[in-house]
From TrEMBL:
GO terms for cellular component: plasma membrane. It is found in: Cell membrane. One of its GO terms (biological process) is response to antibiotic. SUPFAM superfamilies: P-loop containing nucleoside triphosphate hydrolases (SSF52540). This is ATP-binding cassette domain-containing protein.
């Protein structure tokens, strides 16, 4: 469904050339749900804008749903759905009318567009505001309307750029369920960017980590966490000296273990920590090192990115993609 080779985008900010995306090679098979992760400015949104024909690449090639994004942008647009970060509905139109008009623009009959609009209005909790003018809706309501507009024609390939931003937990859950249903019933291919790491972990079967415009990791969430972030075992002792002695003993429990001590608190990071925790506690007991408390934490995708780049996925800030969108 997606194949890029050397996909690159440069733009000029204050007379300086900024490389937003640098030689991106990406393949997405039919039916996959791929999450693009990275902090603001990593190049995620710029990549999506090129793949959806909203932004012309500086160099490289991209085929989306069997069509070249430069030579046949109309062919690409006919086969995809796109939920961007901004509000897409006309402010002077009624929400339901916007959905029906969007469906008609994709060639749906009036009856089919109305039926699909009603389904999405119910699914995304828009029933109370569906006949109100868009300008009177709250930010969260407008976001849910944007999502409905992107889903109206049930596209075979759907791009979602931070779709959950501004949604409360209940509506995030509703969106996740709708995504799962689309995939189960229609086999829709999806590319998702998100700052909700749990969302990517639960929904995506494959995670692509982007930093400074390049892909730095690409695998399943489980494999990424196993390869780049071990379990954390956090232990507290009654005395600093006990934690110091335990640090040396803990490092011998598994090859590649890392130990960090602060006073009477000891944190061990190692592969298979949940499985090794009982053995570790028995070892401390034999050495007469009583543990006051213990906690085992499984790795997260944020741990993966932190270990790969030294930064957190949850960082907020202005980066290249944001600057490019402002210039546009």
């Amino acid at each position: 469904m997606i194949r890029t080779r050397g996909l690159t985008r440069h733009f000029t900010v204050k007379r300086q050339t900024v490389e937003a995306v640098k030689g991106l090679d990406l393949s997405v098979a039919e039916g996959e749900l791929v999450a693009l992760l990275g902090p603001n400015g990593a190049g995620k949104s710029t990549t999506l804008r090129m793949l959806t024909t909203l932004l012309r690449p500086t160099s490289g090639t991209a085929e989306v749903a069997g069509h070249d994004v430069i030579r046949d942008p109309r062919g690409v647009r006919n086969r995809i759905g796109y939920i961007g970060q901004g509000n897409g509905a006309g402010h002077s139109q009624r929400a339901r009318d916007e959905l029906i008009s969007q469906g008609r623009a994709y060639g749906m009959s009036v009856r089919a567009a109305r039926s699909r609009a009603a389904e999405l209005v119910a699914s995304l909790d828009l029933e109370a505001v569906a006949d109100r003018v868009v300008s009177t809706l709250s930010g969260g309501q407008r976001r849910r309307l944007d999502i409905a507009m992107g889903l109206i024609h049930a596209p075979e390939l759907l791009f979602l750029d931070e779709p959950s931003t501004g949604l409360d937990p209940q509506n995030r859950a509703n969106l996740a369920e709708h995504i799962r249903r689309l995939r189960a019933e229609r086999g829709t291919t999806m590319v998702l960017t998100t700052h909700y790491l749990e969302e990517a972990d639960q929904l995506a079967e494959r995670v692509v980590v982007i930093d400074h415009g390049r892909i730095i990791a690409d695998d399943t969430p489980a494999r990424l966490k196993s390869a780049h972030a071990g379990d954390r075992i956090v232990l507290e002792f009654d005395h600093d000296d006990e934690a110091r002695r335990a640090q040396a003993r803990g490092l011998g429990i598994a090859e590649g273990a890392v130990a960090v001590r602060e006073g009477n608190r000891l944190e061990l990071r190692l592969d298979g920590g949940a499985r090794l925790a009982p053995k570790l506690l028995r070892s401390f007991d034999e050495a007469h090192l009583p543990v006051a408390s213990v906690e085992v934490a499984r790795p997260t995708l944020d741990d993966v990115f932190l270990n790969l780049t030294g930064r957190s996925l949850r960082e907020e800030g202005t980066g290249t993609a944001d600057a490019e969108e402002s210039a546009a």
